[in-house]
C-alpha cells in the first residue's frame, strides 16, 4: 500500500508541474490584462532584461548580484530562494550552494550540519551579519566546535552567503570557509512591512503524522533615519523512522592476532549482530530576530538580537541480537603456536569424554596444557572468545548471543542567541566600523532514558549463536535460529526486565567579543583602500554529564503489557512481518507516567535506586582567548584588482577537568596551551569584460584542536570480572585493560589554500562559473584521530600482556582538491508561456587524501577526509508566470567516510538522492498559496555501511515523504 502511494504521489506531483505551462498558456489570452495588472501589483518587482519577475527569479537575481560584487569567491542563497525550497532548516538551505554538503540527523532525516569543500563543521566559521556566532559543535557526535545550523529555521533570514576564500579582516579559523547569515532590516522593505505565513505538513509514513509552522514579520521606518524590524517563528515538525542495521562491528571469519591492521578483507567478514527499531521524533523550533537601525549623515548605528531555541524529543523501541563471548560457555583452547592454521577443529578432534569433559587428540605441543596433566581436555580451556580456537586455526564459532528489547530515547535542547551593538562612522576618506557582541549557545541532553529487557542466550533453545543474513537488498538483514528460537524471539516471557536508567548532560559556550575596522579610501589613486583592525574574543565553555535516575525493574517484559502501545507488525513495506515483526512496543507516555509513579514510590514494576549524580569524568571547563589583528590593502591596475594583507591570531587556552579512576580515586587536572598563527593572503579579481571576471587567491587559514581532546584527563578501563565467573570481583582484583587520554600538546591544523575561478554573467538573468580549489593541510585533525601507544599489547580484542594507551595525535599531511561548476539561467527568450522557465545546476567534484600517522597504517597510506563526498550535484527547473510558480529540485550527495575502525573496516555513509517539488499560486497581490513535497520519491535518508560498498550494512533508515501547504500574506 505504501509503495503504491509513493508512485501515485510522484506521478501526481510531476503531472501537476507538467500541466502548469499549458494551464497558463490557455489562460494567457483571456487573462492577459488582469495578469499584467496583478504582476505590476506584486511587491518589489525586479526588471531583468525587459522581463518583470518576483519570487524565485527575483531571488536568483539577488544571488547573482551578490556573487558578482563580492571581493572573494563566494555563493549565496537568498530568502526568495529559501522560500521556494522545502527546507526545514538552514543546513538544508545552505546545502543547495556549490561545494556545500549536509550531514543528516539519523532519525529526523533533516540536514543537521554543513561541510564546506570537504571540511567538516568544526573547520568552518559562522557569523550573523558579519559577527562571529558561538557554537558548541555536536556533543552527540563527540566534537565541540562549530555550529549545528539545524537549530535555525529559514524564516527570519534574508540571505546565506558562503565565503570560500577569506580576506584578512575575517576570522582565520575557517579552512573550509565562512557562512554568514544576514538578517533583514527595516530599510530592506517598504516603509511599513507586515507579513506572515502558516504551514501544515503531512508525513507519509506509518502513522501519517502532522506538523505545522508559522512566522510573522514587522518592519517600520519611523523616518528616513530610524527603522525597526522584528521577526518571530514557531514550528513543530513530527517525523517517524524505521531502522535496520548491524549490532556491533563486523568481524573476521577466522581468528586474528591483532585488530589494528590492514591485513584483512572486510568483504569476507561475518555480521556479528542485528538491530531493528522504529520510533517517533518531534522537533520544535522557535525564535525571533530584531534589528533597530539609525542611519545618519556620517554615523550609522544598529542594535541587533537573535534568539533561537531547538528541542528534539525522540523515543524508539528496538530489538537487538548480538553474538557474544562473555561466559564460560565461550572458553576456548589456546594454540601453542598461534600462527599455525592447520589444526583440526575442536568438534572434529574429540576422541572421548572423561571427568574433565571432552578429551581431544591434540598434543601438548599444539595446545596449551593448562592443568599440566599431559592430556588436552576441556579443563585446558582458557579465555573466552568468538573462535573455535585461540589461534590461527580458529574459525567463527560463537556459543551464545544476547537477545534484547529496548525502550530508549529522550529530549535534547539547543539554544543559539546573540546580541550586538555596532555601527559605522565616516570621516571623509576614513571609515570606522565597530561591534560589541555577546552570544550564548547550548546543546543539552535534558533527559535520556534506556530500559532493556533481555537474556544472555547461551545454548538457548538449542542455538549456540545467531546467524545474520540478508535477502535481496543487502540492507535488509534478518536473523536465523532454529524453530524454537524463532518462536522464542516473540515470546515476551523470555526477556527479563534488566535495567532502566536515565542521564543528562550538555555543553555550553559563552562568547564575548569586540572588534573594529578602520578603512582609508584615497581618491584618484591606484590605491583604492587600506584597511586595518583588531579583535578580541573570549570563549568560556563547559560540559556536564550525570546520572538522572536509576531504577530497578522487576519481572519480564510480559509483565509490562499495561504499558504497551500498538504492536508493530509490519516494517519496510512488508519485509518484516510474521516471525520477523518487531511486535509489542512500549508506549512512551505510559512509561514516563510509570517512571513518575516510581519516583513517588507507587510503582509495582520499578524501584528507585539512585537519582541525580554527576559524572566527573565527562565534565570539563574550557576558556579560550583569541587576540587578532590585521592589515590589508586594495589596489587597482587597469582591469585588475589586487587585495593583499596578513592576519595574526594569538590563542591561549585553559582547561580544567577531572580524572575518575574507579580503583585509584579522582584527580583534578589543569592544562594550559597556546599558539600564534600568521595568516597572509592575496586575492586578484580581473575584469575580462563587462560580463566576465577571473578570480585567483592564495590564502592561509587554521583550525584549532577540538576542546575535549586537548585535556590530559585519562579514562581508565578495567576488567571487573577477570576470572570470568559472571560475578564482579572486589576492586582490588580488577585488571587494568586500557587508558584513553587527551593531548594538551595538540597543534592547530593549518592550510595553504589555492583558488582560481572564471565567471560569466549573462546580463542580470544568468550566471556561469567554474572554480578550482586546492587545500594543502599540515598537522591535520581527524575527528576521531588517535594513536595507540602499544605498551605490550597487540590490539583491542587480545588477551593483553600490557595496557594500550590511546590519545589524539596530529596527522601528518593532507590535501583536498576539487572543481565547482555552477550555472543559473532564466530562459526569458523563449516564447510565452515558456519565457518563465529557468534552470540552475551546480556540481562539485572533489578528492581528499590524508596520511593519518596511525602506527598501524603503513607509510604513505591515505584515507579520504571524513564527511567529504566525492561528488555533490544540485539540479533545479523552475517556471514563473502570471502568478503561477513551479519548481523541481534534485539533490545528490556521494558516499563519504565517517570514521576509522579496526581491521581497516571503516564505516561510510552511502550516497543519497532527493527530489523536491514546489507549486505556488498568487491568489491576490497580498496572498500566495504554496504546495511543497519533500523527498518526493520516498528515498532512504540514512544508509551507513562497513566499507565504501553497500554490502555491509551498519544502519539503514527511512523517514518517509512530507507534503506541505503554506499560506503567505503580506500587507
Write the topology of this structure:
Elements: H1 2-28, H2 32-41, E1 46-48, E2 51-53, H3 55-69, E3 74-78, H4 79-84, H5 90-94, E4 100-104, E5 111-116, E6 125-128, E7 131-132, E8 159-163, E9 178-182, E10 192-204, E11 210-221, E12 226-245, E13 273-295, E14 299-324, E15 333-334, H6 346-349, E16 350-354, E17 357-360, E18 389-390, E19 400-427, E20 430-458, E21 467-470, E22 477-480, H7 483-489, E23 496-520, E24 527-553, H8 588-599, E25 606-614, E26 620-637, E27 640-661, E28 665-687, E29 692-703, E30 714-719, E31 735-741, E32 749-762, E33 766-778, E34 787-791, E35 803-807, E36 813-826, E37 837-851, E38 862-863, E39 871-881, E40 884-893, E41 896-897, E42 907-909, E43 912-924, E44 927-934, E45 942-946, E46 953-958, E47 961-970
Parallel strand pairs: 6-9, 15-18, 31-35
Antiparallel strand pairs: 1-2, 3-8, 4-5, 6-7, 8-9, 10-11, 10-47, 11-12, 12-13, 12-46, 13-14, 14-19, 16-17, 19-20, 20-23, 21-22, 23-24, 24-25, 24-26, 26-27, 27-28, 28-29, 29-32, 30-31, 32-33, 33-36, 34-35, 36-37, 37-38, 37-39, 39-40, 40-43, 41-42, 42-45, 43-44, 44-47, 45-46
Gyration radius, rounded: 31 Å
What proportion of the residues is helical, as a percent range?
under 10%
Could you list the spans in which at least 5 consecutive residues all have pLDDT below 50?
Answer: 1-54, 785-801
Percentage of residues in DSSP E strands: over 45%
Number of helices in the DSSP assignment: 8
Rounded average pLDDT = 88
Question: Would you report the number of β strands?
Answer: 47
> What about the largest sheet?
22 strands, antiparallel, barrel
Rough shape? Answer: globular
Structural class assignment: mainly beta
What oligomeric state best describes the polypeptide chains here? single chain
CA-CA gap between termini: 44 Å
Amino acid at each position: 500500500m505504501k509503495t503504491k502511494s509513493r508512485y501515485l504521489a510522484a506521478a501526481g506531483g510531476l503531472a501537476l508541474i507538467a500541466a502548469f505551462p499549458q494551464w497558463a498558456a490557455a489562460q494567457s489570452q483571456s487573462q492577459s490584462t488582469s495578469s499584467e495588472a496583478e504582476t505590476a501589483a506584486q511587491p518589489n518587482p525586479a526588471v531583468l532584461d525587459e522581463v518583470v519577475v518576483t519570487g524565485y527569479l527575483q531571488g536568483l537575481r539577488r544571488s547573482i548580484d551578490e556573487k558578482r560584487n563580492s571581493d572573494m569567491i563566494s555563493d549565496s542563497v537568498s530568502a526568495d530562494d529559501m522560500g521556494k525550497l522545502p527546507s526545514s532548516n538552514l543546513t538544508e538551505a545552505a546545502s543547495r550552494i556549490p561545494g556545500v554538503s549536509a550531514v543528516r540527523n539519523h532519525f529526523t532525516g533533516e540536514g543537521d550540519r554543513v561541510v564546506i569543500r570537504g571540511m567538516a563543521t568544526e573547520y568552518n566559521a559562522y557569523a550573523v551579519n558579519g559577527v562571529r556566532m558561538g557554537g558548541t559543535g555536536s556533543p552527540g557526535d563527540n566534537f565541540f566546535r562549530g555550529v549545528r545550523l539545524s537549530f535555525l529555521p529559514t524564516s527570519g533570514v534574508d540571505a546565506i552567503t558562503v565565503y570560500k576564500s577569506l580576506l584578512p579582516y575575517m576570522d582565520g579559523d575557517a579552512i573550509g570557509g565562512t557562512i554568514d547569515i544576514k538578517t533583514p532590516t527595516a530599510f530592506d522593505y517598504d516603509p511599513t512591512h507586515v507579513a506572515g505565513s502558516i504551514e501544515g505538513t503531512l508525513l507519509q509514513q506509518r502513522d501519517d503524522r502532522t506538523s505545522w509552522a508559522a512566522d510573522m514579520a514587522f518592519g517600520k521606518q519611523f523616518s528616513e533615519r530610524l527603522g525597526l524590524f522584528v521577526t518571530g517563528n514557531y514550528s513543530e515538525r513530527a517525523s517517524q523512522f524505521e531502522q535496520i542495521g548491524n549490532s556491533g562491528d563486523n568481524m573476521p571469519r577466522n581468528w586474528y592476532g591483532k585488530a589494528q591492521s590492514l591485513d584483512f578483507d572486510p568483504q569476507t567478514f561475518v555480521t556479528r549482530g542485528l538491530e531493528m527499531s522504529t520510533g517517533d521524533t518531534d522537533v520544535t523550533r522557535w525564535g525571533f530576530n530584531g534589528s533597530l537601525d539609525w542611519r545618519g549623515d556620517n554615523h550609522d548605528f544598529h542594535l541587533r538580537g537573535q534568539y533561537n531555541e531547538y528541542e528534539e524529543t525522540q523515543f524508539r523501541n528496538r530489538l537487538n541480537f548480538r553474538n557474544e563471548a562473555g561466559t564460560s560457555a565461550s572458553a576456548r583452547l589456546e594454540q601453542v603456536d598461534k600462527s599455525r592454521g592447520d589444526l583440526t577443529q575442536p568438534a572434529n578432534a574429540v576422541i572421548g569424554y572423561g571427568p574433565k569433559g571432552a578429551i581431544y587428540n591434540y598434543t601438548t605441543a599444539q595446545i596449551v596444557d593448562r592443568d599440566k596433566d599431559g592430556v588436552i581436555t576441556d579443563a585446558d580451556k582458557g579465555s573466552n572468545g568468538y573462535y573455535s580456537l585461540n589461534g590461527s586455526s580458529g574459525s567463527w564459532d560463537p556459543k551464545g548471543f544476547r537477545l534484547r528489547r529496548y525502550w530508549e530515547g529522550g529530549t535534547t535542547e539547543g539554544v543559539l542567541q546573540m546580541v550586538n551593538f555596532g555601527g559605522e562612522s565616516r570621516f571623509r576618506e576614513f571609515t570606522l566600523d565597530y561591534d560589541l557582541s555577546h552570544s550564548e549557545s547550548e546543546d543539552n541532553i535534558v533527559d535520556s532514558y534506556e530500559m532493556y529487557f533481555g537474556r544472555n542466550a547461551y545454548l538457548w533453545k538449542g542455538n549456540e549463536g545467531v546467524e545474520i543474513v540478508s535477502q535481496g537488498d543487502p540492507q535488509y538483514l534478518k536473523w536465523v535460529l532454529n524453530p524454537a528460537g524463532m518462536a522464542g524471539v516473540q515470546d515476551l516471557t523470555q526477556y527479563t526486565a534488566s535495567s532502566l536508567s536515565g542521564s543528562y548532560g550538555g555543553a555550553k559556550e559563552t562568547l564575548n567579543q569586540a572588534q573594529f575596522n578602520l578603512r582609508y579610501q584615497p581618491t584618484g589613486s591606484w590605491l583604492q583602500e587600506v584597511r586595518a583592525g583588531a579583535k578580541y574574543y573570549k570563549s568560556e565553555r563547559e560540559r556536564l554529564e550525570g546520572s538522572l535516575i536509576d531504577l530497578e525493574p522487576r519481572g519480564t517484559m510480559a509483565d509490562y503489557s499495561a504499558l504497551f502501545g500498538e504492536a508493530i507488525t509490519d516494517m519496510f513495506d512488508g519485509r518484516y512481518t510474521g516471525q520477523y515483526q518487531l511486535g509489542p512496543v512500549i508506549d512512551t507516555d505510559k512509561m514516563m507516567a510509570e517512571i513518575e509513579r516510581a519516583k513517588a514510590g507507587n510503582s509495582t514494576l520499578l524501584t528507585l535506586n539512585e537519582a541525580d549524580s554527576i559524572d566527573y569524568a565527562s565534565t570539563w571547563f574550557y576558556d579560550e582567548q583569541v587576540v587578532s589583528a590585521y592589515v590589508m590593502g586594495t589596489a587597482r591596475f587597469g582591469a585588475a584588482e589586487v587585495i593583499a594583507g596578513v592576519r595574526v591570531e594569538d590563542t591561549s587556552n585553559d582547561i580544567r577537568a577531572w580524572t575518575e579512576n574507579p580503583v585509584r580515586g579522582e584527580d583534578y587536572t589543569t592544562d594550559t596551551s597556546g599558539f600564534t598563527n600568521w595568516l597572509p593572503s592575496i586575492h586578484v579579481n580581473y575584469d575580462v569584460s563587462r560580463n566576465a571576471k577571473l578570480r585567483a587567491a592564495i590564502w592561509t587559514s587554521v583550525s584549532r584542536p577540538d576542546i575535549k581532546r586537548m585535556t590530559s584527563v585519562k579514562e581508565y578501563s578495567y576488567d571487573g570480572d577477570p576470572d570470568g565467573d559472571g560475578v564482579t570481583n572486589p576492586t582490588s582484583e580488577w585488571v587494568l585493560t586500557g587508558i584513553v587520554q587527551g593531548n594538551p600538546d595538540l597543534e592547530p591544523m593549518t592550510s595553504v589554500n589555492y583558488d582560481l575561478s572564471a565567471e560569466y554573467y549573462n546580463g542580470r538573468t544568468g550566471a556561469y562559473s567554474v572554480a578550482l580549489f586546492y587545500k594543502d593541510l599540515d598537522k591535520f585533525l581527524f575527528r576521531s584521530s588517535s594513536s595507540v601507544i602499544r605498551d605490550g599489547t597487540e590490539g583491542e580484542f587480545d588477551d593483553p600482556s600490557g595496557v594500550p594507551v590511546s590519545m589524539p595525535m596530529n596527522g601528518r599531511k593532507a590535501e583536498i582538491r576539487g572543481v565547482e561548476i555552477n550555472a543559473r539561467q532564466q530562459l526569458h527568450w523563449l516564447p510565452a508561456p515558456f519565457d518563465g522557465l529557468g534552470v540552475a545546476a551546480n556540481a562539485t567534484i572533489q578528492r581528499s587524501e590524508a596520511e593519518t600517522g596511525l602506527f598501524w597504517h603503513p607509510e604513505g597510506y591515505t584515507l579520504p577526509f571524513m564527511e567529504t563526498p566525492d561528488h555533490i550535484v544540485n539540479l533545479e527547473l523552475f517556471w514563473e508566470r502570471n502568478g503561477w510558480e513551479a519548481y523541481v529540485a534534485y539533490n545528490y550527495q556521494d558516499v563519504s567516510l565517517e570514521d576509522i575502525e579496526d581491521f581497516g573496516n571503516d564505516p561510510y555513509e552511502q550516497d543519497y538522492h532527493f527530489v523536491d517539488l514546489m507549486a505556488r499560486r498568487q491568489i491576490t497581490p497580498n496572498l500566495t498559496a504554496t504546495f511543497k513535497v519533500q523527498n518526493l520519491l520516498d528515498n532512504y535518508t540514512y544508509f551507513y555501511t562497513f566499507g565504501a560498498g553497500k554490502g555491509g550494512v551498519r544502519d539503514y533508515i527511512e523517514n518517509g515523504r512530507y507534503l506541505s501547504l503554506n499560506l503567505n500574506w503580506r500587507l
